[in-house]
């Protein structure tokens, strides 16, 4: 039986982390452990764009992006899935385990968590999420485990064995999972101070309407677009979305404790 009290406690915090914010001196993993000890249920979604780019370049392939989303052909898909679901996910699991934490590494394929269709022929094997199954995630939370999820999805329109898996933008996956879980917070750890206005000043707080205007007017560009869109998408179900500088020590705990950091979207 699924423990429905998880929803009522509203203690789920979905945190999207990326390789660019993890490194020597970083406090992300200790912060997540502290958050869990405080009675919250962290759900981790991770990217791995930096590592994917490194492996793609090793093979002499230049990455292409469309509106902040990686264009994915079959070769790039195979690399992305191998790096995300294998290398990066396993490294994160190892880091938590070495700190005596109970975690489980997953992809969006496990437990049928993410189901998707081809987003656009221009993007190749990039998926658009059409269904999110959170029952498996809830079971993991009940077992007192921290789920660490890589962004891959089952292709619901697959016609052969070559296209059963689709690459999903990690920011987009985090937004869908946070919304489906009715999470308290959705937090994006980035390598910038927050969302910037046209004069490159941090915007400390904005509504979803203001956030959409930043995209429509071209102020928000590149990888910031899917992060903002994810906060907008999840806004009807989550309490608050945050885009913060994950390079700052204690950034996650500061965010959850209500200190002013990065950009708050409501």
Written account of the structure:
The chain has 266 residues and is an alpha/beta fold. It has a single domain, classed as Acetylglutamate kinase-like (Carbamate kinase, 3-Layer(aba) Sandwich). Helices cover 35% and strands 23% of the residues. The protein has 9 helices and 14 strands. The protein has helices at residues 5-9, 28-37, 49-58, 74-97, 135-142, 170-180, 208-216, 224-234, 251-256; strands at 12-17, 41-46, 65-66, 69-70, 103-107, 114-118, 127-132, 146-150, 152-155, 165-167, 185-190, 205-206, 240-245, 263-265. The strands form 3 sheets. Strands 5-8-2-1-11-13-14-12 form an 8-stranded mixed sheet, with helices on both faces. A hairpin with a 2-residue loop joins strand 3 (65-66) and strand 4 (69-70). Helix 3 crosses helix 4 (74-97) and helix 6 packs parallel to helix 8 (224-234). The two termini are 33 Å apart.
In short:
The protein is of the alpha/beta class.
Task: Using brief descriptors, characterize the structure shown.
disordered N terminus; single chain; 14 strands; about 35% helix
Counting DSSP E segments of at least 2 residues, the number of strands comes to 14
Query: Which fold name fills CATH's third level, the topology?
Result: Carbamate kinase
Number of distinct helices: 9
What's the order of the H and E elements? HEHEHEEHEEEHEEEHEEHHEHE
Oligomeric grouping of the chains = single chain
> What is the highest CATH level, the class?
Alpha Beta
Supply the helix-strand structural class: alpha/beta
Mean pLDDT equals 88
Low-confidence stretches: 1-8
Give the overall form: globular
Compute the CA-based radius of gyration.
17 Å
Helical content stands at: 25-40%
Report the end-to-end length measured between terminal Cα atoms.
33 Å
Q: Tell me about the biggest sheet?
A: 8 strands, mixed
CATH homology group: Acetylglutamate kinase-like
Strand content: 15-25%
Query: How many separate structural domains?
Result: 1
Sheet with most strands: strand arrangement? 5-8-2-1-11-13-14-12
């Amino acid at each position: 039986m699924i423990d429905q009290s998880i929803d009522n406690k509203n203690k789920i915090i979905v945190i999207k982390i990326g390789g660019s914010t993890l490194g020597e001196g970083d406090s992300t993993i200790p912060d997540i452990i502290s958050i869990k000890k405080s009675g919250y249920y962290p759900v981790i979604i991770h990217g791995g764009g930096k590592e994917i780019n490194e492996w793609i370049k090793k093979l002499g392939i230049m990455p292409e992006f469309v509106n902040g989303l990686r264009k994915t052909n079959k070769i790039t898909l195979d690399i992305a899935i191998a790096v995300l679901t294998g290398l990066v996910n396993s490294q994160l699991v190892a880091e938590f385990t070495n700190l005596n934490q109970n975690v489980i590494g997953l992809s969006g394929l496990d437990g049928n968590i993410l189901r998707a269709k081809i987003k656009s022929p221009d993007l190749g094997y990039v998926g658009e999420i059409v269904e999110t199954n959170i029952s498996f995630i809830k079971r993991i939370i009940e077992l007192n485990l921290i789920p660490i999820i890589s962004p891959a999805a089952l292709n619901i329109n697959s016609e052969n064995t070559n296209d059963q898996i689709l690459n999903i933008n990690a920011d987009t996956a985090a937004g869908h999972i946070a919304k489906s879980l009715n999470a308290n917070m959705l937090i994006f750890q980035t390598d910038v101070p927050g969302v910037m206005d046209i004069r490159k000043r941090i915007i400390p707080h904005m509504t979803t309407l203001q956030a959409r205007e930043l995209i429509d007017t071209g102020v928000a560009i590149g990888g910031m677009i899917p992060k903002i869109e994810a906060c907008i998408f999840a806004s009807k179900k989550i309490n608050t979305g945050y885009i913060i500088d994950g390079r700052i020590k204690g950034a996650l705990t500061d965010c959850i404790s209500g200190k002013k950091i990065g950009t708050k979207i409501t």
